[in-house]
Structures are given as C-alpha cells and as structure tokens.
Write a structure and sequence with these properties.
The protein is α+β, with helices and mostly antiparallel strands. About 25% of the residues lie in helices and about 25% in strands. It folds into 3 domains: about 200 residues, Aldehyde Oxidoreductase, domain 4 (2-Layer Sandwich); about 160 residues, 2-Layer Sandwich (Aldehyde Oxidoreductase, domain 4), CATH 3.30.365.10; about 350 residues, Aldehyde oxidase/xanthine dehydrogenase, molybdopterin binding domain (Aldehyde Oxidoreductase, domain 4), CATH 3.30.365.10. The longest helix is centred in the N-terminal third of the chain and has 23 residues.
Length: about 750
C-alpha cells in the first residue's frame, strides 16, 4: 500500500539541497526487508522516490538505488516518466545519497523494479493528475476534458495547451488526489520499450566516474595487510622497511575484526602513501606475525567430506508431503545422487574501493562504489562512534557488484583511516585481496533420492540441502540455514510429486559468507535441474517432456500447505504465485527456441534447465560440443524468461546475456578453496572467468509476454545455466557430472 506525501518546497530544499522552483513529491512505501540484517537496509515507512517538476520544464528524478550495469538509473525514470507523460529528453536523473528517507536503498535481490513498480507509477500518475487539475482550473473547464500528453496538458475542444513548467506553481498549491488512474498499458510510451542507458555514452567513452576514480584534495592511498585467516589478529608488526619506501607516509594498525564479522573491517595493518603503488609496496614490506585464530584449521577438502556426511544423515525437516520412506520401500526403482558446489567469489571487474574524509563537524564524508549506502552509514557510525546522520555517503557508479558491494567493510576501512590519519584516504582492494579476503558464496552439499513407478512417474522425492548460512556473518552461533535461504530454490520446487520431503543440515562457517548473485538458487537449481534430467533418462523419457510431467497440471502452489516456512521473496503469493502453468510455458518456449528434439551430431548435445527465482522463471537450453580430447565448448545458449511486466526489454536481454557468461564462469571454473584457513586462489589465473574465446557463438533471449506484476531480472538468469550445461554434456557423452566446477572433471 503506498501513499503520496507532498513536501513543501522548503522541506525538500532542506532535505535534498535542490535549488529552484517546482512541484515536489516524496513517495512513501511500506517495506519490510526480511533479507537484510540490522546492519543494513531499512524496515520503516519513509520517502524513497523523489520527483521534482521544475518551472524550467526539467523533471528531476532521484534514483535511490545503485547503478552497476543493470540499467536501474534508466528503468526507474522510465516508469515515472511514462505515467507522468513527460518528455524523455527533459528528464534529469540524480543519484540519491545514503539516507533513510529514501527507504530501502540496498540494491540486491532484484528488487528495484519488482518491489517499486506501483510506487513509481503512483508518483508519475499523481503528478500528472495534479497538473491536469491545475490546467482545468486555470481554463475553467472540467478536468475530464483535459489530458496530459508529451510534457503538456491539452484541452481538446478549445485546442488550448500549457506546458508542465507553466503549471507547476498552481499545481503545487493543490491537494494530492486520493484516487488516481493509471494509463492503459496500450498507451505506454516508455514502459516495455527499449531505451538507451542514461549512462551509456559516458560508460562507453570513458567519461563515467566509478568508485575507484574518486580523488580528493590531499588524499592518501591505502593498502591494507589483512589477516590471512578470518578472525586472525596481530602478534607483532615491524613497519620499518615499509616506512622507508618512497611515498609512504603513515602505517596505521586497523581495529581487530569482530565475531561475528558483520561488515566490519577484518583488521590488520594499513600503509598510507602518496600513490597506490607506493602503498602496495609498503604493505609488501611489512613484517607481521599473525595469530590465525579459531579458523586456522579450516580445510575445504575435509569440510566437503563433513558436508556430504551430514547430507547423508537425517536432517532438519523443512517440508513434508505424503510418506517418502514408505514409497521408497515399495518403489519399482530408486535413484540417489550427490551434488556439490564449492565456495564462490564475486570477482567484480572493479574491486572494492571507497574514499573518505572527515568533516569540520566531526562527521565523515564517503564516496563509495556501494550497493547499500545505508549499510555504510550503519557500519561506519558504529565504528567511529558518531551519529548515522554524520555519515554522508555519495554513491558512485559500480564496476560490477554481484552482492560484494552491498558489504560496507571497505568503506568502513576508508572512514577509519581518514579519522586516524587526519587526511582524506582512499582504500582500493587489489584483485588478490578481494578474492582472498572478501565474502564468499556458501559451499553446499546436496543429497537427492527419488523413486519411480513402472511408467516412469516420480513417486517420491527426498532432498537434503547442507551449507553454512549467510546469517553466520551476523550471528556466529548460527549453523543452520534459515527459512529465507531455503526458500531460494528449495521449498518452492514446483513439482507435482505426491511424496516429498525436504531437509536441511547443520554446517559451521569458517569464512565470511555473503550474498552472491542468485544466492542459494545456484546450488539448489544445479541439484534439482540436474537430478530431474537424471530421472528423465532413468525413465527413458525426453528431458523436456519429463520436466512438464514433473510440473504436473496447471496450479498455484503454496509451500506452507506442506509445512514449509516460505516468504516468497517478501511478496504476496496472490500477486506473485508459484504458477506451474507459467513454468510449463517457459519449458516449452525455450525448447522451441533451440529446436529441441532435433538430431545432433556425434559428441554434441542439448541440455535443458528451468528454474523459478526472485519471482521470475527462466529456462535455459545449452548446446555443447565435446572434442576428441574430451574438452567441452558451450556453443550456444537460449534463454526464455517470464519476468512479468518488463520495463526495458533491452536491459532484460542484457541481463540474461550477462547471466549466461556469469553462470558459465561459475559452472566451468568457479572454485574457492582453503588450506589451514587461508584461501588458495588469488587472481584470475587460478580463479578464472569465461574469456572471449570461451563464450558461446550466440546467446538468444526471448521475453515472455505475460500480464503479471514485474519479477526480478538481475539474478534469475544465473541458476539454470550450470545444470543446462551439465545436462547437455551428458547428452553429448553419456557421462554425468554432479560437481562444480567442470574444470575439476577435466572437461574444460
């Protein structure tokens, strides 16, 4: 439920610093984020979209979310401008700073459109109706005879018109309407239409400014030697050699890391210098003796065995339907399988970077490539012992994020060093530091068991999911996944299997676990879509047809009917149902796109996977070729995406293409391992991403036309990629792979 608050001009100027006249709106929306701990995000009703129609005809829209290539600084204004009937060329996009008055500013979970579409429409439609009312009053005609079109209000019978700029003063004196009407979708000018990125030209010509580009007068550059093992502390440090390096000015000990980690700095020693190179050389010259702490024994190989053993034992009941064990006992055939996904790193192209300076009032001003400026405010205010309002956060463009930059640790490091040094400081993580000391996607072991009858129908399904919970980063005592995580691809499984039991297992965390693009859906989709393909072949059925069989008749599911605690991505099931008809439509569409069922040459195969996540359903078909040496090449990918109402189809296509490459990188190469608590991988030579010569020859995207509220787009494309590739490899070779990355199997 949303409401419109009309701020006075003075209030708006005071809150935003905007100068000039106009019609100013602050939209408020009730929002409760169950996916965020108290260290970040917001859970109160507060203004989160500002719209200012100025008397010079400019329409200013504040974007309260972060731009990291997904196009949100274009898509948000599209919605408002369409309902407003604004001229796109007169839109001015402004980036909002971190402030609770904007509501939840955390740009993750594919929420920016799906949670705020109606709010954005309301902002534009309300302003439009007030402008129309102002024109009608000025002309002394009924409101019904007037209409807004292309940045002006028109009176049809008389031919009179007035621009928005001419009407804002009188419109600002009106009360906001209590009932508004939205445009007919047939009349959309921007919604659902491809629109060029507002930042596109600047990005492609090198003019765009990212976090790593920040420069402040008198700024020092910091490089930090962090504990090799999470939770480690310093025994001793000798900075003599570091201070002798040209350009090095200061060596500052960081505060020790905390348990739980939260988003606090990890600790260590910082070297501050006149340039980044000198700082890095100074860091390398430090002589530090470490106490590695409780996680010094962490070995990823041993840990894997623990997870697998846990997945083979009875677990914590998550969902139950029918009687799985009784069905297994009388089944015609039973299939068991273990699926495994290791730790993963975000590895954004721009590593974490933030700059900070202390203000004359005792606060701190921060420029950061952050997905969550309010988390920066929360973390820094606690670290420095100042009020949140004293932490000013300027959000820069992000050179990729994937969840890594929703964490505030690098911003907190910059703020701490700015205070301790008395000078502006920029902290830039190296590639090695980000891969070795970042937040990691949880490693997981998945155990599945299913039975079939004589006709090949799946009669029972057991699935145990074991992984360290993300929330261990905020509560060190947690070792069991929470309902939110299990609802990311497990409890919302859309299969019409009469007997189903889902369980979780306990797993302690030994590294910082954090959100990574698609989160738990990665390993849940890998296991479920891979196992579904196995069951199809066990039954002698076509994998496409078997997916449709598993989905069963058209219906809308509620996991709570089978005892699951399910949040549906914090959205009502009535608006965003688990709809098997829509799932089946995606299966059919993506198969059609790939000409599923055609004869394939020897050592080539097609694989299919379909998964619902973030309220959207995405189907992927992969075409792979396997050469004489047994090496796999992904030749083509097809995507069919049901994301409900789409705002900018170009952005949806781009996100699916990017998901294809991101998902391939995880499937083929992604693996973070530890020995004695230390992360082994440190750069792209041992944590590779897909290179140009390894990309598919083509990625095809079809956007389903569905009359439904918007779903997520940024994340849903990733989960089906890996299982589609693995299933295609099986089709080409007859060999089944159940563990990522494929590089470990020697096929890439």
């Amino acid at each position: 439920m949303s409401r419109l608050d009309k701020l006075s001009r003075r209030q708006f100027l005071r809150q935003t610093g905007i100068a000039g006249g106009g019609l100013v709106f602050a939209m408020s929306i009730g929002y409760s984020s169950t996916a965020r701990p108290e260290t970040g995000g917001a859970s109160q009703v507060s203004p989160n979209v500002y719209l200012n129609i100025r008397d010079d005809e400019t329409v200013e829209i504040y974007c309260h979310r972060s731009e990291m290539g997904q196009g949100i600084r274009t898509s948000l204004p599209q919605v408002i401008a369409d309902e407003l009937e604004a001229d796109w060329d007169r839109i001015k996009l402004l980036q909002a700073p971190g402030d609770k008055k904007y509501g939840d500013q955390n740009t993750d979970g594919s929420t920016s459109i799906r949670k705020q579409f109606d709010l954005l429409r309301t902002a534009g439609a309300t302003a439009r109706e007030m402008l129309v009312a102002a024109a009608a009053a000025q002309w002394g005609v009924p409101v019904s005879e007037c209409a807004a079109r292309n940045h002006a209000v028109h009176h049809g019978s008389s031919g009179r018109s007035a621009s928005f700029g001419e009407l804002v003063s009188s419109a600002a004196e009106l009360d906001a309407p209590t009932n508004i009407s939205f445009k007919d979708p047939a009349d959309y000018r921007y919604i659902g239409k491809p629109m060029d990125l507002i930042d596109g030209f600047a990005m492609t010509t090198g003019q765009a400014m990212y976090g790593i580009d920040t420069v402040q007068p008198g700024m020092l550059y910091a490089s930090i030697a962090r504990p090799p093992v999470v939770g480690g502390t310093i025994k001793s440090v000798d900075a003599t050699a570091a201070l002798n390096i040209a350009g090095v000015e200061k060596v500052i000990r960081m505060p020790d890391g905390t348990s739980p980690a939260f988003y606090n700095p990890l600790g260590g020693v910082a070297v501050l210098a006149q340039n980044t190179w000198a700082a890095q050389q100074g860091q390398a010259a430090l002589k530090i003796e470490w106490d590695h702490g409780a996680n010094a024994g962490y070995d990823s190989d041993d840990y894997r065995r623990q997870l697998v053993d846990t997945s083979h034992a009875d677990g914590n009941l998550v969902l139950n339907r029918g009687d799985v064990n009784a069905t297994f006992g009388s089944a015609e055939r039973v299939l068991e399988a273990d699926y495994y996904v290791p730790h993963l790193s975000h590895a954004p192209m721009e590593p974490p970077s933030a700059a900070a300076r202390m203000t004359n009032e005792g606060g701190v001003e921060i420029w950061a490539a952050t997905q969550d400026p309010q988390s920066v405010q929360n973390t820094v205010s606690t670290l420095l012992g100042i009020e949140k309002a004293q932490v000013i956060v300027h959000v820069t463009l992000l050179g990729g994020g994937f969840g890594r930059k929703s964490k505030a640790d690098f911003s907190a490091e910059a703020a701490w060093l700015a205070r301790e040094s008395g000078k502006p400081v920029k902290v830039t993580w190296s590639r090695e530091e980000d891969i070795q000391h970042g937040f990691f996607h949880a490693v997981s072991a998945q155990y599945l068991k299913a039975s079939q009858d004589e006709e090949g129908n799946t009669t029972a399904w057991l699935h145990r999911s074991v992984f360290p919970t993300i929330f261990s980063t905020f509560d060190a005592g947690l070792s069991r996944p929470v309902a939110l995580e299990l609802g990311l691809g497990l409890t919302d499984i859309p299969f019409a299997i009469p007997n189903m039991r889902l369980e979780s297992g306990d797993a302690a965390a030994h590294v910082r676990i954090g959100w990574l693009r698609s989160v738990c859906n990665i390993y849940h989709a890998f296991a479920i879509c891979g196992f579904a393909d196995e069951l199809a072949h066990l039954a002698g059925a076509d994998p496409r047809d078997y997916l449709l069989q598993l989905a069963g008749p058209p219906r809308k599911l509620n996991p709570s009917d089978d005892g699951a605690e399910y949040g549906n991505y914090d959205q009502p099931l009535e608006q965003h149902p688990i709809d098997t008809a829509r799932y089946a439509a995606v299966v059919k569409q993506v198969a059609k796109m790939a000409s599923w069922g055609r004869d394939m040459p020897k050592n080539e195969g097609l694989g299919i996977a379909v998964h619902r996540s973030f309220l959207s359903t995405v189907g992927v078909v992969a075409h792979v070729k396997v050469d004489a040496a047994g090496k796999l090449q992904v030749n083509e990918l097809w995507f069919a995406v049901d994301a409900g109402q789409v705002i900018n189809p170009d952005r949806v296509t781009a996100q699916m293409e990017g998901a294809g490459i991101f998902g391939m990188s995880l499937a083929l190469f992604g693996e973070i391992t530890a020995k004695d608590g230390v992360i082994i991988q440190d750069n792209f030579h041992n944590y590779p991403v897909v290179r140009l010569n390894e990309t598919p020859k083509a990625i095809h995207v079809h956007i389903m036309e569905v009359d439904a509220p918007p779903g997520g787009v940024g994340e849903p494309g990733v989960p089906p990629v890996a299982p589609a590739i693995v299933n295609a490899y099986f089709a080409a070779t007859g060999k089944r792979i159940r563990e990522l990355p494929l590089r470990k199997a020697g096929v890439v």
